[in-house]
Every structure is written in structure tokens, then in C-alpha cells.
Amino acid sequence: MMMLTKRNLIPFAVVAMAIVTICSCGGKEKRVPFDSGDSTSNVLQDKTVYGVCGDGTAMHTLQIITDLGDTVTFDIAAAVDNNKVFGGLQAGDRIAVVPGTDKNTAVCVINQTSLLGNWVMPNPLDGSDEVGFSIKEGGVVEGIEQSSIIYKTWRLLNGQLEVVSERESGGGIEDIALYNIIKLTADSLIIKDAEDIFEYGRQQTKKEHSDIKLEEASSEDFKI
Fold first, then answer.
1. Is-contact 99 107, C-beta < 8 A?
2. Which PROSITE patterns match (predicted)?
């Protein structure tokens, strides 16, 4: 269903050279990978600040207790005006903040707690079933009624949703899909890649029902 782009394979020599370069740069700020599956090879490219929404959050300010243990306040007025605050702001929820040129200003805010869950849409082939994926803590993502796609990991990267998967008959080659988040609410997720827009709804829990049918009471039932 999803249109995924293939990952470019990086020669081992280039990776080794990059590791040597990183290790030789002393005194640089140490970034802590977020627990949603960030790979150490890409974490230095991610400018996002991760943490927990604090009680000091207001309409145009966001207080976040970062994964490094710092308490930081961001001006989110621009993000609010540009509809770049996704999933709402609730104290205690995990939050991802993409800072602007001014590091105290946020250009994008994503509530990661709101992002977790089962997201489905009608099967685009015949509409008979719901298909989609389940976003879980720790970078785990699983397909819903999609046997031909093996989902592997997810993470947020500079305000985008990255999903790594593999086609069942893809010969072990991983696909990386990068999506812009268009909308995220309690029951709606809309994402967009370079070509398509995907609209998901949060999967509703099916209520168990009994096959036993009860007859309606009548006045005769209450006669002594």
C-alpha cells in the first residue's frame, strides 16, 4: 500500500571513515538517541530535542524536560500559527521539538505519545478490510493486515516520520519511507510522502458481543 523508497547502501569504507572522524572530534555536544529506534549513524543529523512535556507549558510556550535532564522552554507561537503542533500538548507526554535558528523557538512540535497506536484505512484495492500499521514504543512498528510488507522500525527525524520496512519478496533490501505529518489528533493521522497522501484513523476496539438474544419484558412477566 505504501510507496517506499529504497535506501542507498553506504560502502563500508565510507562508514569507517565517518566513525573515525566522529571519534576524533573531541569536545562536541553529545546527543542521546531517542528510544524510538534512532540509529547511531543518523543521530548526529537529527536536530530534534526529545523529552517530556512539563507543567509549565502554556498556549504559546512549551516546557520540556529533555532526555539529557535539562528543563527548556520553547516559544511555539510560530509553530502554532503554521499548524505545526501535532497531537496536542499534555503534561507527562513524550514530545519531539524541532528548534528553529533561534534555539529557543520551535518550528515543529510532535506529541509522540499521541502518535502511538494502531492506524488503519480501508484497503485501497477493494475497501473490504482495514489495513495499516501499529506504532509502538521503542521504535517498534508492525503491519496490520499487510502480509506482503515486513515493518521493522520507526522514528522521528527532524519533524518527519521515518518508517523502515522490507517487502516479503524484496531479497532482504530495506526500504525507507519519509513522511511529512499533515495532521495528528486523537483519532486521525494524515501523512504525506513525495507523491501521495495517506489518511488513517485510529483503529477502534471491537466490542465483544453475545449470540444470546434476550426477549423484551412484558406486563405478563410481572403478574403474580
1. yes
2. PROKAR_LIPOPROTEIN (PS51257)
